[in-house]
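Lab notes, practical 5.
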Amino acid sequence: METKNSATAIGFTFGRNGRDLDRHRVVRFFIFVIRRWRFFNVRALDKRLLPGIFVLKVLVGTFFWWIYTYHYTDRSTADIFKYFDDGNVLFSALPQHPGDYFRMVLGIGNDTPYFDSHYYVHMNHWTRQWDTGYYNDAHTMIRYSALVRLFSFGHYHVHTVFACFFALVGLMAMYRAFASVLPGGGVWLAAGVFLWPSILFWGSAPIKEALLFFGLGLFVLGASGFARGRTGPKEFALLGAGLFIQLILKSYVLACLLPALAAYAWSRGGTPRSTLLKFTVAYGAATALLLALPLVHPGWDVLGLIAQKRRDMLGVVSLTDPGSYIPFPPLANGLIGFLLDIPHALFLTFLSPFQTWHIGAMGLIGAAENLVMLALVPVAILWAKPWRQINIPLVLLCTGFCLALGLLVGWTTPVVGALLRYRVPLLPFWSLAVLAVIDIEKLPRWNLRRIR
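Output from the prediction step:
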């Protein structure tokens, strides 16, 4: 392996010598699984809906590939290719040195000069240009790509199909969890979980978001089981798998969700006043814990990590000059700086897409999605249930998570294109909050024909 390109070529050559599992066969196999697996069988949804969503995701994932092949032609900076190409370098060890392959995939004894000189030096993204000392989630994606490579034989589109299926499993798990606390949601809830443009786009390619939805959905489904008093092996397995996937991918999403879940579990069955108080106490305790962590270990300085991520993003901006960049104001030192920046952070997350609507089709779609997202708030208020029928803890859980993740994204991301991607996990929870407030019986009846 003399160069990065030759290393990738070795991976492809090995694939051509094996059995070719083309994309269409893999799509048909997963459609068969979706139709037969009871997990996807929900009475409130037409049986053709989920296979149709899966096919739609594959089409969107193919369009994603087209964009980063023919429009944005720098392959080295495209997430869909950088993990795929580096995964092929890792996979190239399997024919001659299977022990090396498994050690790198499992992360056991692979941090040595031998692996650096034989494999990692030929990868573009194993080592980050800006290293905060935090876990490098690129390693997870490269290892995942090297595992899928066992089945894809070097065909990129098969990786897309696998990503679409894993994302669909996670979103379906999330739908089932949400349906357990929102009876009658039906296709309205399905649309709010599966059909946001950003979820379709970013959750239909072999990038972090597809696996993030997989892990987040499993975790939420397991947590919902515990909330209903189920504490069997299935719930522990769901929680454990979801927790593990999130920790090795985007643990900040989990960090934003945990205080909301804890407050929800504490406040269920209480009065609206006590519920609000308990959520306030829970978030206050979570904030105090984050501020105290550096006293326990200097490497656990969360505010410092956020500030470093902010600087890293500005470094990326200086190198790439993105068209959707929104200037950051100076951030004062310490907690005061973050508190003063809250209005601007929320503006970036929830309003800045309107400033870039004119920057191509993606800018227009992002602005339209943002308009729908914000318009749902007055719609929910206009068609709200009677106050006593609203599940206040559920609404606060969703809005608390959305605001926490929105703040974190707004503190660190000045590029609207990236911001729309990073805020994707909050969209299903935004939908759930709206549907928890709204009286579904007031919605147009013609949209509910397929509810059983």
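Observations recorded by the TA: DSSP finds 21 helices and no strands in the chain. The mean pLDDT is 87.
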